[in-house]
Amino acid sequence: MSDLNTTVTRYLAIWNEADADKRSAAIAELFTADAPYIDPLAAVEGHEGIGAVIAGARDQFKGLSFELIGTVDAHHNIARFQWGLVTEPGSEPIAIGFDVAVTAEDGRIQGVYGFLDKVPAA
Fold first, then answer.
1. Which segments does the entry list as coiled coil (predicted)?
2. Looking at the domain assignment, is residue 11 inside a domain?
């Protein structure tokens, strides 16, 4: 089992990566080829699907970043953690989510299942 704290840190870094090529390479390195990403707004599978969801969020929330809220709670090959979408580090999040990541034997993410706790006002 890999260090799930590091896995979560790398996962959030992908959401914050502005360079599409670097983001794509990081997704290919961190996720298994058929990994699903499922949340209330998306249900995709594989590197391209995950990349499209992240690119869409980056386009929608330009200039904002994702940061870990609290600590990663993990056991076996499963991590759960809360994240915030912020205008600057440490600021009040405009969105808050809760994700569960499941990893494969080699430490790569084989699935992410997300929930939204707070969404931006329309």
1. none
2. yes
